[in-house]
Design goal:
mainly alpha, Growth Hormone, Chain: A, 3 domains, 19 helices, globular
């Protein structure tokens, strides 16, 4: 009996050493290997899917004035974005189940074809109601391909490339905020908004063909957990709907009630998940001592900071007297910092450097937002506008230096492939939920300024900074198992 216990203890110790060795493994593979002939097609699909989704978020916003002018439906303006986002949350939550049943290639083909079908409906829409239906279909496919971007890393790339791949994929969110508005604005300027969705359809079809040729077709990972967490999905979808509605109802008690309902539904979602055997987030998330929950919370607060970009062009035009084009570039300053710093951060190989990057990220993001709020002024001159751009860039750097290492922390949270795919896919779900919640809250913060746009800018900046400041604490806990 004693020998058996000793043998088991020795086995457990060896297993622990292997897990720690994997967690401490250095990046190893470089950009050259990631973009080599062996991996280029797969990497292009993973990054392309996320870029297609991210670009589409901002693409349609730039087209909306032209769409309303053509087919009407101004009263449903907000629901074009709300319908897409709510459907994307659902699509992202089904990633691990679909991946386990269909395999990487067919899952991607399904996602791109559904996204393309939605784009087709949009291009042919005779009314706003039909357009919203197309956006819902697009959201289902978009949420799936965006979530697959993280989940398929494990099965298509060696672990020495995970950090760079995760950095490249998450950088696509920043790229989307740069390319989407510009491309959408171009089509709107030319009066060709329907052709814009034709372009999205073409891109989706090209990526579907690439996925069929380049990605593994076998299923299996996650197949043993194919049941759908219906109650969790309903609770989370209702929560996302409540937060989205809060930005469309009359300001005042109705807004507060919508936000309160959203918070209560999120609490109900977490409570149910903790007690359920079939969950949206990996069961590791709710296990005592596992830091995965803190990884997700840190990702959420970093994504919350991104939503400040929504109103920055408005403040740039009204407070700084900028043209729409220059104001749009100011709004992209955070994304530029995010993309550039992320591509540099993935080169950090030591565990100590990665830990510092994760802990420093929320600090820089929060500091950038606070300083941006303090620098707001009516009739801002060129020097002050440049200062705004600099501090927003710094805030974006905070997101970029931490994000890829948080992604890898989720990937390495378990040695079980099915749970690992689920942990990776949940990164996208976390992002979408954070975007949905914060977009509603930023709208509420802006209206608190009343007739004073200067006060609105400060409320927005300081309010979002309070949320991102929570990441200083969650980032520390997220690294507790890597000391």
């Amino acid at each position: 009996m004693s020998e058996s216990i000793e043998t088991q203890t020795s086995s457990d110790s060896k297993r622990e050493e292997l897990i720690l060795a994997a967690a401490h493994q250095q990046t190893g593979g470089g950009w050259g290997e990631l973009f080599s002939r062996a991996h280029l097609a797969a990497v292009s699909i993973l990054a392309g899917g996320v870029a297609l989704y991210a670009m589409n978020l901002y693409f349609t916003a730039a087209l909306m004035p032209s769409i309303v002018s053509d087919i009407g439906g101004a009263e449903y303006y907000a629901w074009v974005a709300t319908g897409f986002l709510m459907a994307a949350v659902i699509g992202s939550m089904l990633v691990s189940r679909i991946l386990g049943s269909l395999g990487a290639a067919r899952s991607y083909i399904l996602g791109f074809l559904v996204f393309g079908a939605g784009a087709t409906v949009n291009a042919l829409s005779p009314s706003m109601e039909i357009l919203i239906l197309g956006r819902v279909v697009q959201g289902l496919g978009g949420g799936l391909v965006a979530g697959l971007g993280y989940a398929v890393i494990r099965s298509t790339l060696p672990d020495r490339l995970w950090a760079r791949a995760a950095g490249l994929i998450s950088a696509m969110w920043g790229v989307g905020t740069l390319v989407g508005p510009a491309l959408g604005g171009l089509f709107a300027q030319l009066g060709l908004w329907r052709w814009a969705y034709g372009l999205l359809l073409l891109a989706a079809l090209v990526l579907a063909v690439m996925a069929n040729r380049a990605l593994p077709r076998q299923a299996g990972a996650g197949q043993h957990d194919s049941s759908v967490p219906l109650v969790s999905l309903i609770l989370l979808t209702l929560a996302a709907a409540a937060f989205s509605v809060s930005s469309t109802v009359p300001r005042g008690w109705a807004t507060g009630a919508s936000i309160l309902v959203g918070v209560l539904l999120l609490f109900a979602f977490v409570t149910f998940e903790r007690r359920s055997t079939t969950t949206v987030l990996p069961q590791l998330t709710y296990r005592s001592g596992n830091p995965l929950k803190w990884v997700y919370l840190t990702v959420a607060v970093l994504c919350a900071g991104v939503m400040a970009e929504t109103f920055i062009p408005l403040f740039g035009q009204e407070l700084g007297g900028l043209t729409p084009l220059v104001a749009g570039l100011l709004g992209a300053a955070m994304s530029v910092g995010w993309v550039l710093s992320q591509l540099c951060s993935v080169n950090l190989e030591s565990l100590r450097a990665q830990t510092i990057a994760i802990r420093l990220g929320p600090v820089l993001l929060t500091a950038g937002l606070i300083v941006y709020g303090l620098l707001q002024a009516d009739g801002a001159g060129a020097a002050l506008v440049i200062a705004w751009a600099v501090v927003l860039f710094v805030a974006g750097v905070g997101i970029g230096i931490a994000f890829p290492h948080l992604s890898v922390a989720a990937l390495r949270s378990t040695t079980d492939e099915a749970e690992g795919n689920k942990a990776a896919a949940a990164l996208n779900t976390t992002q979408l939920i954070a975007y949905s919640v914060t977009s509603a809250l930023t709208g509420t913060l802006v209206t608190m300024g009343g007739a004073s746009l200067l006060d609105s800018a400060r409320y927005m900046a300081f309010g979002v900074a309070i949320i991102t400041a929570l990441g200083v604490v969650t980032a520390s806990f997220s690294m507790s198992n890597r000391r």
